[in-house]
Amino acid sequence: MGLKLYPLILMGIFKLKNHSSLIIHMEIRIPNPHDKFFKESFSRLEVAKSFIEEVFPKDMRDKMNLNTLQLSNASYIDDMLKEHFADLVYETEYRGVKATVTLLFEHKSYQQNFPEWQLMRYMSNIWGEEQKQLTDEEKEKNEKNPSVVIPIIIHHGKTAWKKTSMRAYFGNPPAELLRFLPEFDYLVFSLNDFEDYQIANFKNDFLATAAMLLKHSRDEKEKFLQIEDFLIEKLKAFDTAHENGFIGSIAYYLQSASNLTKPDLTIIFTKVSNIVNNIAMTIADEIRLEERESNTFEHIKGLIQNGISPEIIAKSFGLSIQKIEEIINKIKSSYN
Question: Which residues contact residue 14 at a Cβ distance below 8 angstroms, ignoring those fewer than 6 apart?
């Protein structure tokens, strides 16, 4: 088969002044429990800061002023990326110049095909949004450079993450065509590459707990219980500090994503305190309610798709016509 050539959309590559900006990616997808737990954990400024301090390459970490690190409300997810990413965006200074650090999370249990393609689209969205935010004066002067993007993937699957280069995807094209191929690198942190004692020694308890649970979330019961003492110790510390929100996040994650049974979890939470066990019981009730609502939604969706009228559905489920119409609108939006 001959070499295929496709017309290309031109993308600008800009020279960075003062090495000013960097961006990091970790992939997420709500409502997956892994995504939910990750985002709730890494939305904490201290967790993101500690992550950078603990595992970021030293040559870049030392140039970041983490005292200026702050969470941004910006998002760069489009319809094509929303199935793959949910982003956390942090801004900080890098070598004395304001930079952008974007965190995305990858949690698949298998080697993702062509992760660079998704990252490249994400970066393009970032640059496009930055251009939209420029004032007319800034556009006219053309002095404000876009951010340099440094993608990072955090992986906690069972299999090792195998990196390859962008050019490797294209086989062996003629040398004169190499200059037309995109090429960039990304950093990947596989939690399975960290020993448990290394994670336990992370200075920030929130980061240590999040990383440990993400690493072991798919373990069978016997293996997971090897970190029971660690988990109880951290839960006691969070209980003392009245971090009920994070305790709730842990309870939700363990009940939704781990292989532990309800009795197993009750034993663990009871060993911490009655307060923690009560929080976990409340979360369990919320999960059951979510499951019932999800099942109801799917049943109604099936009836609507089979042509059953909203009036009959409303009567059958004891819901108002307005509620059925809301569900219909959700179904329609899911197809757009």
Answer: 145, 146
Confidence category of residue 2, pLDDT binned at 50, 70, 90:
very low
On whether the CB atoms of residues 82 and 128 are closer than 8 A, the answer is no
- Going from the C-alpha of 274 to that of each of 113, 180, 212, 267, 331, the distances in angstroms are 46, 63, 24, 11, 41
The H or E element containing residue 72 is strand 64-72
> What are the structure tokens assigned to 83, written together?
């199935």
Three-state DSSP state, 85: coil
Distance in angstroms (rounded) separating the CA atoms of residues 137 and 208: 46
Of the pLDDT bands very low, low, confident and very high (cuts 50, 70, 90), residue 75 is low
DSSP string for residues in 93-128 = EETTEEEEEEE-----SSPPS-HHHHHHHHHHHHHH
pLDDT in tens, 82-141: 544 446 778 788 887 766 666 655 555 566 788 888 888 878 887 888 888 888 888 888
Tokens at 255, concatenated = 């009940």
Which pair of structure tokens corresponds to residue 285? 């009730």
pLDDT at 4 > cutoff 60: no
Alpha carbons 55 and 16: distance in angstroms, whole number:
25
Q: For residues 35 and 28, is the Cβ–Cβ distance under 8 A?
A: yes
What proportions of the chain, in percent to the nearest 5, are helix, strand and coil? 55, 10, 35
Give the Å distances, CA to CA, from 228 to 232, 268, 334.
6, 7, 40
Give the span between the Cα atoms of 309 and 304, in whole angstroms: 7
Residue ranges of domains in the chain = 20-131+145-192, 247-336
For tokens 């009871």, name the residue: 270
d(CA 218, CA 210): 14
The model carries a pTM of: 0.74
